[in-house]
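User: quick one, fold this
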Amino acid sequence: MELGLEQMKRLKVEKTMSALKQNGINPYFAPDKKAAADMVMSMIEPGASVAFGGSHTIESLGILPQLRSGNYRLFDRKDASFSPEEKHRLEQESFTADYYLASTNAVTMAGELYNVDGSGNRVAALNFGPRKVILVVGVQKIVADLAEAEKRVRTYVSPAICMSYGKKTPCAITGVCVDCNSPERVCNLYSTIRKQRDRDRMHLIFVDEMLGF
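Assistant:
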């Protein structure tokens, strides 16, 4: 039974990777997050500028210490010494980065990327700005279509993020999005990427682990 489930999962991943490639997004597969971390670092040239979005997945790879080593120019949004104004300026400067690291909220089997943001810095950078985008995505984020992607965000992703960060939103209590008017809501800006014109810009690494939300 487990073998059958693994085969079904692999077929789902392979079909999605094929669709991503047709859409101009370069797909890769890593068996675990260690392999994914090595793959990410192999893609980034020494001396390059690197930015990253708010992502539990990227943080879980353990690559931030390497990026802070001095061999790269890191736009470090996790630097606690920054004032809110300095952090905002850094996020604006991130659009000039050579590489932008992030995850995505859902990937459809048609090769579409679906994302929802609170402030918009991540979805904006995915759409335009950084020279290359590297996405690291747990295979649990593959969904059938955009309707399922939206459902995943409303019933799982947004509530989990709000709970994780202690946000004062209804979904942090109920576990389900109610399209609230809370000033702390994290689902304000929506983005669907269907295709990439520059076929060398976006790279997506599927990881055979449950990573992120």
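User: anything notable?
Assistant: The two ends are 27 Å apart (CA to CA).
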